[in-house]
Design brief:
about 425 residues, alpha/beta, 6-stranded parallel β-sheet, 13 helices, about 35% helix, globular
């Protein structure tokens, strides 16, 4: 595929890193010549310096015969404009990152009427991931398959876990749920386990099942006692989207925000949420706002270090479920070391979604039955959801299979 990546920021670089090794012709466009030079020197891509909203620059990038343009600059308006222009010029598919909440209600219009293939919002997608994680307080991360019918949850095995030492073929002794342990990550070693695999402390288990089965599994292993009822959110742009999602589930939300003007905006847009003007890292304020009676503390400010420190404090002092938002990609794998329950990286989430779209689109263009493709275990494993047709060699009762791919080796589940 010929792919134009507009924007050489963190999301753009992440996309290029993953796609440059997958037989794509990639052209990166950015107004910053230094960023373009860095990407071109590091990866096998073509660089174009200039404004992606310019007809001449898009022509130079080859928009006339491009399969896809991915617009991920820091400007929503530039992303929308460049996507529209590229579409008119002949680019087959367009993806735009649009972050402003004012545009949220227009996502369907942009797709259906303006022809965008995909509209992505890092804060909205991060809010959705946090909501899913809060539905399983013991989970590190939760993804969905088959339009939400099946979920894939990541669980970390503690020293005191009931799963410790249990072989997978003996799981039925502690849980009757219909779940599947499809991958294990232990000390950065990725394993596709068979029934003889004995679960060890420190394992990251990747388990698939329906929401109901995963919920029952958590109950059976003693990993969950009560559902999340109250949360404290400290700062961040994600707070707006997350508060709306949690409130519809009957979860009480308090937002602590330093910026007084932002407090006023949130109070107007979220009348059903308690907005506190103050410093969320202040222990006195947290105690005053009832952190003892809170089920989870979500540190979502714009500072990675502040989020991590706040999460560590809430975990060690108050024993609460903690989720920290990070911007730096190299922080995303530190949850075990830092003893933070979950780390969420909006840019990484969006990059993964776009890569998933690109791969699914590529297989569809080759008449494949693949429906969706997910990267799990920090990108070491791919999970493929595909439709079984009458030409499939191993027909089963189910019409959907989950295919796990590790280093080019295939395992069906």
């Amino acid at each position: 595929m010929k792919i134009i990546v507009l924007g050489a920021g963190k999301v753009g670089k992440t996309l290029i890193k993953h796609m440059s090794n997958e037989d794509h012709d990639i052209i990166v466009v950015d107004q910053n010549a230094t960023k373009v030079e860095e990407v071109v020197n590091q990866y096998d891509v073509i660089g174009v310096v200039g404004n992606g909203g310019s007809y001449d620059i898009l022509m130079e990038a080859g928009a006339e015969d491009a399969n896809l343009i991915i617009c991920v600059t820091t400007s929503d308006e530039l992303n929308i404009l460049a996507g529209l222009m590229a579409k008119k010029m002949g680019t087959r598919h367009t993806i735009a990152r649009v972050r402003n909440p004012d545009y949220s209600s227009q996502r369907d219009f942009m797709r259906n009427q303006l022809g965008f293939s995909m509209i992505v919002n890092p804060e909205l997608e991060a809010a959705s991931e946090i909501r899913r994680v809060l539905s399983f307080p013991s989970a590190v991360k939760v993804d969905t398959f088959s339009r939400g019918k099946v979920e894939l949850a990541e669980f970390f095995v503690e020293d005191q876990s009931r799963l410790k030492g249990i072989e997978l073929n003996q799981l039925h002794k502690i849980t009757k749920t219909n779940i599947l342990v499809c991958a294990v990550n232990h000390n950065e070693d990725v394993i596709i386990p068979d029934g003889n695999y004995a679960i060890k402390p420190g394992d990251h288990l990747y388990i698939t099942g329906t929401h109901r089965d995963l919920s029952r599994f958590c109950l059976d292993i003693g990993a969950i006692t009560n559902r999340t009822k109250n949360v404290i959110i400290v700062g961040g742009k994600i707070a707006y989207y997350l508060s709306k999602q949690l409130s519809t589930q009957g979860i009480k939300v308090k937002i602590i925000e330093k910026d007084k003007n932002r407090c006023q905006i949130l109070a107007e847009k979220l009348p059903y949420v308690t907005i506190i003007h103050g410093d969320g890292s202040d222990d006195e304020l947290l105690n005053e706002e009832g952190i003892e009676n809170t089920d989870a503390v979500l540190a979502l400010t714009g500072l990675d270090e502040e989020n991590i420190v706040l999460s560590l404090s809430a975990k060690s002092l108050y024993h609460k479920k903690t989720i920290a938002k990070v911007t730096r990609m190299n922080y995303t794998g530190l949850s075990d070391v830092l003893k933070v329950d979950s780390i969420v990286a909006p840019k990484k989430i969006v990059a993964s979604q776009i890569i998933r779209y690109v791969r699914a689109k590529m297989t569809k263009d080759h008449d494949s039955a693949v429906k969706t493709l997910y990267k799990i275990v920090d990108g070491e494993v791919e999970a493929v959801e595909f439709k079984v047709t009458e030409h499939f060699n191993y027909l089963q009762q189910q019409d959907l299979w989950l295919l796990i791919i590790v280093n080019g080796h295939y395992f069906h589940k």
